[in-house]
Amino acid sequence: MGAGGPGLGQDRHRQLTAFRLRSTRRPRARYGGPAEADFGIDLRASELQGRAPRANKPSVRPRWGHNNAMAQGTVQVTHAGTSRWRRRTGEYTSLAAALEAAADGDVLTIAPGTYRENLVVQRAVTLRGPEGSPGSVRIAPVDGVPLTVRASAVVQDLHVEGQDAAVPALLVEEGAPELTDVRVVTRSAAGIEVRGSARPTVRRCTVDNPAGIGIAVVDGGGGVFEDCEVVAAGQAGVAVRGGAHPRLERCRVHHASGSGLTATGENSALEAVGCEVYEVRGSGVQITGRATAHLTDCDVHRTTADGVTLDTDAVLTLADCRIHDIPENAVDLRSRSVLTLTRTSVRQFGRNGLSVWDPGTRVDANQCEIFDSTGDYPAVWVSDGATAVLDSCRVHDVPDALFVLDRGSRADVVDSDLSQVRNTAVSVSDGATAQLDDCRIRDAATGAWFRDHGSGGTLNNCTLDGTQTGVIVTKGADPTIERCTVDSPAEAGFYVSAGGRGSFLNCRVRGSGGYGFHVLDGCRTTLRKCRTERCARGGYEFADGGPDAESGAGPVVEDCTSDESAGLRMPTAPPEPAVQTAAQSPGLLGAIPGQRTTEQEPLVAAAQPQTPARTSKAVLGELDALVGLESVKREVRALTDMIEVGRRRQQAGLKAASVKRHLVFTGSPGTGKTTVARLYGEILASLGVLDKGHLVEVSRVDLVGEHIGSTAIRTQEAFERARGGVLFIDEAYALSPEDAGRDFGKEAIDTLVKLMEDHRDAVVVIVAGYTAEMERFLSVNPGVASRFSRTITFSDYGPEELLRIVEQQAEEHEYRLAPGAAEALLKYFTAIPKGPAFGNGRTARQTFEAMVERHASRVAQLDEPSTDDLTLLYAEDLPDLT
């Protein structure tokens, strides 16, 4: 072959001659200008015929036009750049050789056939199959990666097959390539994998990989996937990890054996617009481990597990999405995850529509709709210190609308509708808080039920229409109900019993089938400026407290009225005083500790001594009734005895030993630390050590601000809210992280230590958290450690104690354990894995709930179940160990 002409580099020349190319020289254009040139290469695809390459010298034919028919079994390479050489043609024995010979900008058109090669594209070429013959070019090596792209190439109209379970079928490692109309049918680790600095644009590609992940974007990879489809995946449909951040547009993911879309790991991010996830055996969308995701106009439906799962500091935004036909929880959040929903609908779910768990976990829903439950669970479940905010939302056609339970849990509902609720619209229990503003509750058995001690919140300017009972307050719960109207309740408008409290301000009851306000058992309820109209049995009923009623118990009624036709039955006190009490209540109720009100209470006998909520004996009785915690009970009793004896010595004129009342609680979550802290505050109040005894629970987010100076303000505000009670700091070690640097947590600690010293008798501080972390926290903060008198360790519950919790749950809900069920539960709790996520008391409660669900599935098949059928839980009702 002759030497190359001017403008063709020597390396290029040597490369082409190595493949035995022959060229036809053309004269260059007049005046030295570039002449339009084409560069063609023919490659014989021997694998198509199953024969070895021919040994004879390849033939070379000049091809001067673009429309020449391509020979069967060849790869035609066309060079679109300018060159003094018009054409080079030749035959190659492999695709790899053609790729090696091609330069940036070349177009490789592959003839139909099966190519059993591992291709690596390292130049910005175009690699494509013939037009009009989709799927006719198969890249199908025996093992390894069939196609690797490491450049900004164009790949289109190829069929890629892989058989190696350890590697992907199509790997994109570098550049910004365009992949169009590529079909991947494989049994590989991943159908398409994007990693590192690669930023491909993938259009109209499909992946069928029943052995592994459909599309994996890992290790910082990115790119855009448009109109793509994962038709089968043995694991996740689309998996994002290692700081990757792809965008999916109008993609479909279905028939995956794992989650449909999953993102995990810090800095990993997934964005999906107009996508659909369905028919997957795991969760539809799973975001974990500090990953983030944003879904817009997406559908998630027909999953086997939860629709959407968030765990461990995950962040997800759903806008204009639809989640439906989910047998489990439509959305489940845990471990400090944050979810924002806007204009999103959740329907046809088997368990909870929104399930929110753990301190720091939060969901904000705006203009959303949750409806049409297919199970027997609350539509929105908030527990274990989580927070939910519903703004302008609708919840309807569900068994229960909103359940908030556990100390520290909170729900804020604004301008929302709760309707067509078969049982309770709002239930608040176990020390939780709910606040409803400008809401409408319609067609529910119970509008709102504040169930037990420490539970409370506010209903402000709400209407309750068509309920059996508007609001129920029981067992020491203490909500504030302001400017609320209950219309046409079948029974009572407001019902208070079993030691319930509550303040009712400017409330109305109209058209009740029973009483307007029905207060039993001498409950310490406050009614101000309330009115009833057309109540069938009477506007107000204050039943006797009975022989066990405490002295001074009974409601406080002020400026309340009723229409005459309803038969107003007010207490028989003179009308002149500003405060009226029920006739059977000789004393006046003092201010209720920790209660949120919008009015001052100067008229309620301020000069009289405050009566404690309960005696120390009663509170210690509740402590003793808790399952397990024997060492904790001994510690609290010993401390209580020291305080009590010290108080009596002072009364006798003797010196009393100084007792440091601040405590450290260590142990796993779910072992009762918050409950014991609440009882400890009540005990100190009953002994006169604290003025109120209420509990204010905070964590790092409540104390540490975003800029210098704000932390001290936040800490002072929290301390002030706890004045007269207990300040409970959960996960206190988070204020002093190991890699603190310039962290503002130290400012919170310093402020707290000073406040504890300056106001040593005003507030009791309890810091709590995992045992090892709290030991580190105290060791690096001697100023804090010196303020605490003792550490109380909360041990994990044993199998027998977990069994007792289940038995208590069963008794409370009117179930019984059948013979053999208790023994099966013991074995179950012995065998259940007890890793970091083990929930202790929560695990017992979840086990009971699972048994009730299985019981319901079994009994629902009986035509005429007996009482035993309806109440007995059997060993086979236990959930399977996972």
From TrEMBL:
Segments forming domain Carbohydrate-binding/sugar hydrolysis: 110-241, 382-543
Matching Pfam families: AAA (PF00004), AAA_lid_6 (PF17866), Beta_helix (PF13229)
GO molecular function: ATP binding; ATP hydrolysis activity
Keyword Protein transport on entry: no
Keyword annotations from UniProtKB, A to Z: ATP-binding, Nucleotide-binding, Repeat
Record-stated family: Belongs to the CbxX/CfxQ family.
Region (Disordered): 546-580
Lineage per the UniProt record: Bacteria, Bacillati, Actinomycetota, Actinomycetes, Kitasatosporales
Protein name in the entry: Sporulation protein
AAA+ ATPase domain span: 659-798
